[in-house]
Amino acid sequence: MAQRPALDFIEVHSENFFADGGATLAVLEAGRAAYALSLHGVGLGLGSAAGLDAWHLERLHRLVQRVQPRWVSDHACFARVASGLHAGDLLPIPFNDESLALMVRHVQQVQERLGRPMLVENISAYVGWQGDTLAEPEFFNELCRRSGCGLLLDLNNLFVNARNDGLQEQQALQAARRWVDAIQPDRVAEIHLAGHSELPDLVVDDHGSRVCEPVWQLYEHSVRRLGPRPTLIEWDTAVPALQVLLDEAATAREWQHAQAPAEPEATC
Q: Which of 88, 162, 205, 231 is 20 to 30 A from residue 126's alpha carbon, by CA?
């Protein structure tokens, strides 16, 4: 904060600021005074059949009222079970009509409480469900249409999922491009970029390295198809010097300038 780098917006995890006061909230309010703010949640569990946690939603509402962010987002996943236990992770949902109806109800419930539309993000999934009846882009198109929410498009997650489906890099890139081509452009409100780790038998979305070249190529394709979108560089583990993050954000801006004339937004 002391350096005040040239950023278009900052994004924080909502749950880190659910307290009514203290040092963390003071830092957030200082950040909000300097930059546009995005609240990105990891705990709502919008696809949980057990329903939404009323306490969690109320704390989110209070935070939104306090800091008035530009965007509020969470993930298309489940996290809570009938006993009330929270998995502490983003678990994949089935892509079928029943799951879609549940997601629509929960997204509408959140939006009604917050008094604003929210964004929903596609996740990286390491297991899947048998019997899916909807393609993932079709699921998100319908979710946005029925609920009025927007899409937070995570391009690294698309690439990681394709790699974990057994595809090599160029095949995975092509599969991710087809995913982007299938989505309704006007529903995409924000883009996430991140790095990942290649293990012997798994690709992990760990947000711990620079954006890889195939994901930059996917970003180029996405900007060409969708137009410029506010773009966040996620880096949560092995966090480097600030200048490395700023360089990644600058690269995103360069891709946007190269593909579209409109003024872009990119941050880290």
A: 231
CA angle 152, 153, 156 (to 5 degrees): 130
State the CATH number of the domain containing residue 249: 3.20.20.150
Residue 137: predicted pLDDT: 98
Question: Which residues span the domain enclosing 201?
Answer: 44-262
Residue closest to 245 by CA, chosen among 231, 258, 257? 231
Helix (H, G, I), strand (E, B) or coil at 230: coil
Domain count of the fold of the chain: 1
Share of the chain above pLDDT 70, in %: 94
From 81, 4, 7, 6, select the one nearest 49 (Cα to Cα): 81
Mean pLDDT of 232-242: 94
Q: What is the pLDDT of residue 109?
A: 99
Report how far residue 32's alpha carbon sits from residue 14's, in angstroms, rounded to the nearest whole number: 13
Q: Is residue 90 within 8 Å of 79, Cβ to Cβ?
A: yes
Where helices occur in 45-168 by DSSP H, the ranges are: 54-67, 97-114, 136-147, 155-164
Structure token pair of residue 74: 């969470």
| Listed range (4-8, 75-79, 139-143) with the worst mean pLDDT | 4-8
State the residue for tokens 């690439």: 159
71 forms beta bridges with 38
Place of tokens 């880290």: 268
Q: Is 111 exposed, middle or buried (0-12, 13-18, 19+ CB in 10 A)?
A: middle
H or E element in which residue 225 lies: helix 213-226
Give the per-residue pLDDT at 37: 98
